[in-house]
User: Fold VWFA domain-containing protein from Owenia fusiformis.
Amino acid sequence: MVAFNSGNAFSHFWTMSGLLILCGLFNLGIAQPSFFKPDESEGLLPTNRGVCMDAMLVFDTSCSITMATRRQAIEFSKKVMSLIPMATIMGTSFVFCGAVTFDSELRHEFYMNSVKSKEQLFINLDNINVTSNGCKSKTYKALKWLPKQYFTRSRGDRDDFLFPDLVIIFTDDRTIPGSLGRIKQTRDQVEDFIENDTKVFLVLEPNSRERDPYTIVDVLDDDSIFELDDPDAPRRMAEKMVSSYPCGLPRPPVLNDDVGRGCVDLVFAFDIGCSHLPELSKLSKDVATKIITELSSFSMDYRIAAVTFAARPKDEFVFQFDPIDAEKINENLRKIDTSSPVCRSATHRMLQHVRNTHFSDINEINYRKAVNQKALVIFYDGLTSPARAYERTIREAQELLNQDVDIFVVKLDNNRNKDGSIEFKNIVAGEEYLFPRNGFLDSGNVEEVAQGIAERFGGYICKPSEEELGLVVPG
Assistant:
């Protein structure tokens, strides 16, 4: 469950108020961006906002549920998703959806960020093996693992401010073994979801045996409970999603004229090792300056820092609180010395430095908590040196992702005839964060890469501070 760092009170305030947003897409008098691609599927529920959420489907496959019922649960989920708009921005879906099955044990089916389209989602659902592996229903165990293994940044969970979390449980609501302790664990886990602003829907399935007392039903509101055999239930659930998770934000008075303004704290990291051609360093700076120019055209509120790295990271300039001066920032970017001091690129050290210096909650000089979203754009060839340190690079990247930092990679071709794709794919949350989409940076795609990354920042909303929301009294 990825939440920005403004405290539980802030997250609770916004999510429970239903003010779920995706900047610049909706009826606030703000123009819909040209890179918004509506879902053109037929039979969708009417909405001019789309649906924004990260959902996990949890299917009970214990032996108290017949095979026919288990397959019916899959078809129920497909029907619900068929009614929901799954529009995209730059290839990124507004709706992420993953799945697990459980009986005696939890079994992985697919992660939320592995699904890129509605068609792929349906294929994945059809491929789920619903064969029972036991007559126990360890509901508590399945629910316990969702926050640890699925609602994480590396598995596709996005900022809860923009994409709130939803858990849909298909079960006969019997926890087995049915001791009071296990039943309490199941209920406590559901209550923990609710307290952390994760919505829980329960789809009640018929039981092939005498039904035990309900476990989850007593914890949920009636409008969050659906009957599998109710033919109207899929539509009612889809309608609930459309109304509860719109990609839109009514204008809250506390924000005044800030609605629609985009905010980002952005660090550029330039690989200056010798494993790529020198001209690629110049093209990298060209991309960075064009991104700044694009952000200025979006009327973005941004702060920029820049780092170079070879054997050690070096701060070229850090975040400033001065009024934004795009020309000065671009001048500073062009002045960066990208000549290679050594033939080693310790990418892992750079990532650790960015996390501890630029995006540290402790370092208030460099980080404005709860106002700007955080992003890192890395220009490098995917070759950490020494090569054995590549796993440290991936681990450090995961640390940043789990701290709600978006990592973008501009791929540079290396001159070692080596494959850098392993690092490329494993230090970002998904392939949509890799630029260019195909191949490597060259003189012919500088504009395309810069525009593609800048447009992603165009969807970053300014998150109000607790002071703006009136949750704390200044001074």
Q: What stands out?
A: The radius of gyration is 24 Å. Confidence is low (pLDDT under 50) at residues 3-42, 249-260, 362-370, 465-475. DSSP finds twelve helices and 15 strands in the chain.
